[in-house]
Amino acid sequence: MFSYIKGELAEVFEGGVVVEAGQIGWNISVPVSVLDRLPRIGSEVKIFTSFQVREDAMTLYGFLSRQDQRMFEELLGVSGIGPKAALGILSSLTPDDLRLAILSEDARAIAKAPGVGPKTAKRIILDLKDRVKAEDVLPAMVAGAGGAGAQAAGSLADGAAREAAEALVALGYSASEAMKAVRQVERADEMTAEAVLKASLKYLAF
Fold it and tell me: pTM, whole model, 2 decimals?
């Protein structure tokens, strides 16, 4: 029903925001990971939304990217996961960290979310592992490594990060360990795959 809402960030509170658009203040529930990345109050913001209707409530859930909004809706497709549980998962883990956990089948990381036990965590991995690819995570890894954001995920940076992560897996590290290590490399967008690999190995040695 609502693809996104774009307007002035009018209010930020625990668990949500109010965006003023079209002379209406839209109350949108968001995960903690979104609260940490919002601009200042009064700034323009674009929130990708998921409108969920239940017997006792109609609620807008919001995210800063279409990909993260889709991650929320994919969680809703898992048996036993409702909007509150999905929001709790994405508050305990950023969407990128959740993708890492699914890729590496790290049920313990997912089970740390409130109301999510080991069985539910394994069910999430089983249902979503074929929908999450390393390519979904690598551009964010490059951006989080101190580069110039999403624009830094060009062919060299993306290829270097991917090759370094694949090499680490070949050396025996888990996919989660490999991706987290590559993510820690500063200025990875300016490095070759070999340089990213060496820097990642230094990080893993500590």
Answer: 0.69
